[in-house]
Amino acid sequence: MSRYASDFRGERHVFRDLADLLAKASPARSGDELAGLAAESDAQRVAARAALADLPLTRFLEEPLIPYEADEVTRLIMDSHDDAAFAPVRHLTVGGMRDWLLSYAATPQALAALAPGLTPEMVAAVSKLMRNQDLISVARRCRVVTAFRNTIGLEGRLGTRLQPNHPADDLRGIAAATLDGLLYGCGDAVIGINPATDNVPNCIALLEMLDGLRERHEIPTQTCVLTHVTNAIRIIERGAPVDLVFQSIAGTEAANAGFGVSLSVLREAQDAALALKRGTVGNNVMYFETGQGAALSANAHHGLDQQTVETRAYAVARAFSPLLVNTVVGFIGPEYLYDGKQIIRAGLEDHCCAKLLGVPMGVDVCYTNHAEADQDDMDTLMTLLAAAGTSFLITVPGADDVMLNYQSGSFHDALYLRSTFGLRAAPEFEAWLERMDMLDRQGRIKELAPQDGAMRRLLAGGVGGGG
C-alpha cells in the first residue's frame, strides 16, 4: 500500500509514490497534463499538498525519485549533499520548511549557509506549497554573487544579457544591435549571441567580432556565443577568445544526453575555459540555460512533473559554479506552459528554487507567438522578478528576437525596471557607463542625441576585430 494519502472533504486520496505526490501537488500546467501526471481535480491537488506538507524533509534523502544507479544527476545530488549544512532544518517537514523560509530567521546569511544542504527535490516540494508572493519574498532574500569581468547578483543591482541575434549572423547587423543595447545601458551580465549557423568557423568569427568590440571600447563585461559545449572546446583549442562556455542542461542524465552532454563533458569544458584565465575580477566561466518542459519533450523525465525535474537541473548548474544561469521560461511553448498565468508562475518558481539552491538565476521573460500570452503578461512577470531580486534578465531589440522568432524583454524594459525599483547595473559596468558620459547626475541613462560624446565614441569605434 502507498505511504502517501490524505483525506479531503470526506474523500480519501491515495498517491502511488513520492513522485506522484509531488506531481499531484503541482499548480496546474499543460505539460503535466500532457504527460498524464497532473492532479485530476482541484480537490486532489489540495489533498496532495496537505500530504506533502506533513512529509519530513529527510524522506527525500531516503527515497531518490530516480534510482541512484540509473542516473548520474541523482548520484550528483546525493553525493554532494552537505549534511552539516542541512542539520538546522533536518527536523522539519516540507510545510515546516515553508514556514521557516517565510520567518525572520531566514536571513540572507542563513539561506546562503543552508543552500548546500538542500536537494532540488526538497526545494521543489516546498515551492509547491507557496503562493506567488511567498516565492518572491523568499527569493528576494537569497543573494548569489558571481564574477568574471564584472560582479553579478549584488543587492540593488539588475543585470541584463544583451542578445543581438541576427537571422543571417551578419556581423554588422549584430554589431549595430549590440551598440544599440549598450546605449541603453544593457549588456553587463553578458553580450550573448545565439548563432543562426552553429559551426566552429562561424562561431569563431562571431566571437572575434564581439571581443574586438569589447576591447576597442574597454567594456568590463563578458561575451558568449551560445554554441554547443563540444564546439566551445574545439573553439578554445583553436585559440579563439572564449569568455564563457554555454550549454543547455536538464535534470536527468537521459535529458542531458539528448542535449549531447554529460557531467564529464561539462567538466572538460569548464577546465578548458578556466585555463584561459580571461576573467579579471572572478573566474566563474560557465553559462547554463534551463526551462520547464525540456525533459518531458525528450521523453526523459522518468515520470516526474516538469517543475520537479527542472529543479534537478539546478543541481547540475550548481556543481560547476556558473557565472550565469537562466530559465527560458516560456520558450518551449504552450504544450508545457499554456498561458500567461502558467508562464508567470513557472518563472517565479524557477527563480526562487534556483536561488535557494545557491544558483545565480536570471530569467528570459518570454513567450512564443502561439501561446495564450502577450506582452502585458511579460510586463507582470518582469516586474515581479525585479521585486524578487533576479540576477539578470534577457533583453533584445524591441522585445522581438528576429532570429529565434519569439518575444522577450527589450532594452527599454531594463530602463523601466531599473528606474522603478532603483536598481543599477553591475558596479564595474556602471563605472564604464559613467566614463562614457552615458549617465546623468542621478545615475540614469541619458537620452542621447547624435552629437553626444558617448554616441560618437561608440559609433566611431566600429565593430572591431573582423567586422
Topology of this structure?
Elements: E1 4-8, E2 11-15, H1 18-25, H2 30-34, H3 42-53, H4 59-62, H5 72-79, H6 83-86, H7 94-101, H8 108-114, H9 120-127, H10 132-140, E3 146-147, E4 151-152, E5 159-162, H11 171-183, E6 190-193, H12 200-217, E7 223-225, H13 229-237, E8 245-248, H14 253-258, H15 263-276, E9 286-290, H16 294-297, H17 306-318, E10 324-328, H18 340-356, E11 361-364, H19 375-388, E12 392-396, E13 400-401, E14 406-407, E15 409-410, H20 411-421, H21 427-435, H22 453-460
Parallel strand pairs: 5-6, 5-12, 6-7, 8-9, 9-10, 10-11, 12-15
Antiparallel strand pairs: 1-2, 3-4, 13-14
Helix pairs in contact: 1-3, 5-17, 7-9, 9-17, 9-18, 10-18, 10-19, 12-13, 13-15, 17-18, 18-19
Short description:
It is built from 22 helices and 15 strands. By secondary structure, the chain is an alpha/beta fold.
Secondary structure: helix percent:
40-55%
Structural class of the helix and strand makeup? Answer: alpha/beta
| Fourth CATH level, the homologous superfamily of the largest domain | Aldolase class I
State the CATH architecture of the largest domain: Alpha-Beta Barrel
Largest sheet: 5 strands, parallel
The first-level CATH class name of the largest domain? Alpha Beta
Walk me through this protein's architecture:
The structure is a single chain. With 467 residues, the protein is of the alpha/beta class. The chain folds into two domains: 4-140, Annexin V, domain 1, CATH 1.10.220; 146-435, Alpha-Beta Barrel (TIM Barrel), CATH 3.20.20.70. It contains 22 helices and 15 strands. The strands form five sheets. It has a five-stranded parallel β-sheet with strand order 7-6-5-12-15. Helix 11 (171-183) links the parallel strand 5 (159-162) and strand 6. The radius of gyration is 22 Å and the shape is globular.
